[in-house]
Description:
By secondary structure, chain A is an all-alpha fold. Chain A is built from 13 helices and no strands. Chains A and B meet through helix 2, helix 3, helix 7 and helix 12 of A and strand 12, helix 8 and helix 14 of B.
Amino acid sequence: MGNLIVRRVTQMLLIMLTVSLLLFAIFDSDQFREKAAVAELGGFGVATLSADDYHEWLEKKGLNERFLARYGRWLESVLHGDMGQSIEKDIAVSVLLKESLTNTGILAFFVFLIMIPVSLTLGVLAGMNTGSPLDRVISIVAVLTTSIPQIATAVLLTVILALGLGWVPTKSAMADGWSFRGLVLPLLTLLLYDIGYLVRMTRAAMTEVMASQYIRTAVLKGLPYRRVILRHALRNALIVPVTLIFLELNGLLSQVVVVEVFFQYAGFGRMLFDAANFGDLQVLQAATLVAVCVAVGSQLLSDAAYVFLNPRVRFT
Amino acid sequence: MNEHSLLPRLRDQLHGGRMDRREFIRFATLLGVAAGTAYAMAGMSAPAMASSTLPFPAAEPGAKRGGKLRVGEMVARMEDPATYNWNEMANQTRPILEYLTLVGPDNVVRPMLIESWKPSADLKTWTLQVRSGVMWHNGEELTAEHVAWNIRRWSDPALGSSNLGLSTFAALTEYTGDKDSKGRAVRRPLKNGVEVQDSRTVRLNLAKPVLSVAEDCGEFCTLVVHPSFKPPLSHNPIGTGPYTLVELRVGDRCILKRITKTTDGRDFHYWGGDVFLDEIHFHHYEQENQTAALASGSVDAIYELPVEQIELARSIPGAQILSVETAQTLCCRMQVDVKPFNDIRVRRAVVKAADNGAIKKLVFGEHGSVAANFHVAPIHPEYFPLPLQVRDVAGARQLLKEAGYENGIDLNIVVGNNDGPWQQAACEALRDQVKEAGINLAVTVVPATKFWEIWTKVPFGATSWAHRPLGTMALSQAYRTGASWNESHFSDPEFDKALSEAEATIDVPTRKARMQKVETILRDAAVVIQPMWRPVFILASARVHGYKAHPARQMQLTKVWMS
């Protein structure tokens, strides 16, 4: 296990280094410099500058500095814990990152809090009784919610719950401070999709287990059905869903881009979207580091859970 | 009264019926006549103003003090007012910093931080009288030096301000004779262009006659900053307006509060009379989300109501939909020196195959008005009506054949939707129309920010042009040989000459007659397909009073109040 952790962390650091270098390289182009100029002066403003004045402007903004020098300086300050300044929002990246991660963290917390019990219960119920009316209903609903793209779910929910019934605000900007009502729409949008997905996976795993020899043996042996399910079936059926739940942690990070941008929830996804649109390099870099961290971290957790649940597997 | 020598002629024209009243008011105010007086001369009742010396409308009876206004718009950075490139930036700043002049919702310009302006007979020397009793937030009084410092800054070619595209500030620069590495002529500020005569008087000595000095001083990048200004403005905003910045979170919120004390601890006195709101809050909502935000009561007013959301807005109980006609437009322009557009037959074929009226109707329905490919709008005082061009598909085919494209031609138009998705809709409508003439037009949609990186470079592009109070302003910025914003690379000495003549002509019938030539040259050169002049809609809840739609989309909130 210790070995695994060391390997994963090394892997993570290498990925971080590569990705950040790549991002820097992409942004070290005349095209990006022009993007930065347009972001600051506007297309009409840049068009008034003569070539010399344009270069002087770049010089003044430190955008003409050599690539490696800039990268080296950035790397050094990151190692010292300073992630730089957002050009667009004019605040420290660390502050921005902390706030947006907190907001996305709250959203993710509620997603998991509701998703795990609901989808495991429904998935197990469906998988236990494959082919029964209950299974049919659960499966059809699950297919339906996963087949609608989140952006469509978001519109649908807004029309029904916010504009129609007026129960919740249309957008989750939460201008008057944090409110749970504002969280409802993004939360539901994420839940509908994620629960459907996890229910289907749990159901499939449960069905497979229920059809296996050892369950049949246990039933034929005369063990009480309840005991067969709880002691024999569940533990094996949950291996796949549990690893998926950990991987979902990473999946959520990309799902929130759509949902947070649509509902204007000030989380990680929206920050990433804004930064990419504006060309806010330092924010993008920091966000990428976080994303890599979450990706590798969730994989590590998922591996650990797998080992824990399935004694046949050992990572060395 | 010491009036401008051209004024009697204007009055003659008005009484002789050669000029309509609106035109008279527009021109008379440009020549330094107070708007109220101009309305009176024209025999029209002026909109009720607070007093003849203030640029604001009179307070409505029963106007209530206090409260906060929550505005939904995209909350933007506040870096340097002279290089602002979003209207939203100026909206957040306008209650803090102010203009030398204010262009009202009626499209008439009134003095703001200057008390009056006076042009010489040749329109080359302008005397600006600085308003007295204007207090900066730091307790200092506004002086002519401060004003001159700002104007010099706006005319500095190294600043990268779009102000340099305005005739007045362009006329405060001269060509050095050198060319930069891109082959463009280099400019430098004119020596002695801005002269401080005494503590209240600034004189502009322009390189050429300009009529639009007063209008230019009220354009959205000309907010007056204190000479101690260092960007970003949001760190230390010192202005003359009644509000100050309390908090700015880009992409989230911008909070403004009434200012009561100067930074040196004295009582702040606002020159502009009563101000009603205690606080103005800008809350970030993307353009397409603003109506929904107002519908659920999260904001009281929004920056702009997109045309496709008018139905939604009508369903909101009590909401006020306000609109105004503008000279904002979409120019689908072709670069005249890039293949295949260097062949005028190709350009003419595209223009002929397009049906401007149908595009306008599809995009804006009964709102807005059809444009006729020469970039002067009916609401411009010097507009000369040319007959609308009729769609001629067979003619377009014939032209293409002559140009050697018997089997049709593949073209690509780039659109950035900088002003909303309606631009894309217009291009797609154009695509379907020109198909009939054998032109396969592909529409490439790029993100708005991306578009501003390439707008001067793409051979065929759809650029949104903002409202300009005078028709010659846009022509001079976009079609004169070598102008910084000449995106079509159009260059015709005869056009340049005709335009300069029209610009220097104050006599309206003559000016209009001269515009006929200018407009005809541009139209016949088939440089742009310009389908429409777009209307602007805004939306506010029933509680908001005094919030008006403005042709240049300036949000003017100084006299707004909430019931």
